[in-house]
Amino acid sequence: MDFDVLKQPDSAVVHVRLNPYEEILSESGAMVAMSGHMDADTTLRQGKGGGILGGLKRMMGGESIFMSRFRSGSQPAEIYLAPKLMGDIRHYMLMGDGGGLVVQSTSYLASTGGVDVDLGFQGLKSFFSGESIFWLNISGQGVVFLNSFGGIYEIDVNGRYVVDTGHVVAFEKGLSFNITKAGTSWLNTIFGGEGLVMTFEGRGKLYCQTHNAGAFGQLVGSRLPPR
Questions:
Q1: Strand (E) or helix (H) holding 124
Q2: Long-range CB contacts (within 8 A, 24+) of 190-198
C-alpha cells in the first residue's frame, strides 16, 4: 500500500493505493471515490476493539457504531477518503512495539488492517474540560490516518506543555495529561476567554489542530435564525 495526502491543509483528501488482497478500514461515510472493482462492506470489526461491544463503545465516544471496510481483491485498487469537516489529514505509523496513540474521538479517519481501534475512558478530568470523556486508543501495526478541523501541526514534547482543550487531535502514549485553568485564577480563566487547558507531561509527539470545532459551532450557531 502507498498513499498521498492531497489538498492540504484546509480541504485534505487521502489517495490510498492498495496492492492485491489488501484492505483499509475507515470511519463510516469517509469514502469519496474508489475503483469500480473495490469490495466494500460494513463491519463491526473483529478482534480488540471490535464486535458489538466495540461498536457501542465507539458510538459512546462520538464515532459511528459501524466501520467501512474496503478490499482490493485480486487486482490493485485505489480509494479517496476525506473527513466530514474541512481540514487536514496526517498519517501515523504504528510499529507494533507496544506504543500507540490516544486520539480525540472525532479525529480518527481510517487505518490499515493490523491497527486496533479501542475506546478508552479518560476519567472525569476530560468531562470537566468540556470535551469528550472518551478517547480512542490506537495500537497494533500499520498506518492510521488522523483528521482535524483546520491544519494539523506536530509538537515534540519533552517535559511540560499546555494546549487548549479544543485543539488536541492526538498524542503518543508516553504523555500524560491533566485539565487545568488557563489563567492564574478562575476569574481570569472565565473572563479571559481562554477557558480550560490540557497540561501534558512526559516525552512524545502531540498533534494539534488550528481551529476549535466546538467554538466554531457556537459562533455559527448563534448567528443562525431560530428554527
A1: helix 124-127
A2: 194/164, 195/130, 195/164, 195/165, 196/128, 196/129, 196/130, 196/165, 197/162, 197/163, 197/164, 197/165, 198/129, 198/162, 198/163, 198/164, 198/165, 198/168
Tell me the backbone φ, ψ of residue 162, rounded to 5 degrees.
-120, 130
Q: Tell me which residue of 32, 112, 148, 29 sits closest to 80, measured CA to CA.
A: 32
* CB burial string 123-156: b at 16+ within 10 A, e below: eeebeebebbbbbbbbbbebbbbbbbbbbbbeee
Q: For residue 133, what is the enclosing H or E element?
A: none
What are the b/e assignments for 188-210, b being 16+ CB within 10 Å? Answer: ebeeeeebbbbebebebebbbbe
E strand segments, 77-133 = 77-81, 89-95, 101-104, 108-112, 115-121
List, in order, residues 6 or more apart from 153 with CB less than 8 Å away.
207, 208, 210
pLDDT of residue 186: 53
Tell me the three state secondary structure of residue 56: helix
Higher pLDDT, 10 or 128: 10
Please give the single-letter amino acid code of residue 59.
M
C-alpha cell at 53: 461491544
Query: Over the stretch 138-179, which tens digit does the pLDDT of each residue have?
Result: 999 999 999 999 999 999 999 999 998 889 999 999 999 888
Nearest CA to 118 out of 92, 132, 137, 96 is that of 137
